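Before a computer can learn anything about folding, someone has to put a protein's shape into writing. The three-dimensional part falls to structure tokens, numbers that each stand for a local backbone shape. The protein below has been through that process, and both of its lines are reproduced in full.
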Amino acid sequence: MFLTWLDSNSWLLEIGGKRILIDPWLVGSLIFSNLDWLFKGSRSQNRPIPDNVDLILLSQGLEDHAHPATLKLLDHSIKVVASPNAAKVVQQLGYTQVRVLAHGETFTLNNQVEIKAFPGSPIGPTLVENSYLLKELESGLSVYYEPHGYHSPQLKQAAPVDVVITPFVDLTLPLLGPFIKGGNSALEVVRWLKPQAILPTAAGGDVLFEGLITKLLQTKGNAQEFRSLVEKNNLSTQVLEPKPGDRFELPLEKRALAI
């Protein structure tokens, strides 16, 4: 199993002989609803579009997960698995193979990788987006991805999970509260899933953020603090810090074969 972090929430996961592109933002700026004065994310240079992508996996329909400019560049014949909200984005762009996953539903890619949707991040008062559990069927190795740190208790039934990708940092807006939860939320999911490794997402990387929201944001925590928290609680999970653009192999034992 190989992972490449592409900044922000974007990942290339190589699992079961398949290349899965997760929540890709690779080109251009990140702006919500064309309000660049409110929030704008920029990178010094575009990231290359990965070759031979077998599947695009989208957890949310917002621009930082279903980035229109990036999705326009990708081959529209690539299979897409998406939350109902994200599916609308790619369908409007003309993608031809879109599978919507509601919470609790599964999709199997070429009999090699199983993807199950769980409740993820709440977006507004009525919408709950997706988190995902991906499993390599031959070995049983598994990866859980939730980019805002909202973890459903339903996950407990999936334990143990080998790799968790979720924020370590808390990002809070005055009056509105946290919209990204790291710290204690990440610690809770480590206790539930007992992963061999956990990696951060949603913060850091080669990206510059500006706009009114960034001036109001309150940030708490980092990878080193989270590592100390894991050690303090006598948990054996490795806390890894990938560098943007580096492809690396996860040092995992195939313990999941016993499941």
